[in-house]
C-alpha cells in the first residue's frame, strides 16, 4: 500500500526541518482529510486539539477513530472504491450539445 508523503522544510544552513512523529503525522493527515470534505472546519483548530472533540458525519467519525496510518489508508481506499463503483453504476456522461438541444426542445 502506498503511504502519503510528507515534505518538511527549513531554512538552508540556518534551521533544519522539524521532525514529525508518526502520531503527529496521523493527526495532521486526519485533519487534512476532514477539511477536504468539510469546508466549515479549520485545519489548524483540528490539529491543535479539536480533532478528538469533533462531532461530524459518520465518515469523519471513522476517520478520527482510525488508530494507525494503515487503518486510515485502508478505510479511505475502501470508501473510494465504493464511490467509484456507485458512480460507474448509477451515472452516465451526457454530451453538452445533446443536452442543450434536448433541453431547448422541451421548453417550447
From TrEMBL:
InterPro entries given in the database record: T7SS_EssB
Name under which the protein is recorded: EssB
Species this protein is from: Staphylococcus aureus
Phylogenetic classification of the source organism: Bacteria, Bacillati, Bacillota, Bacilli, Bacillales
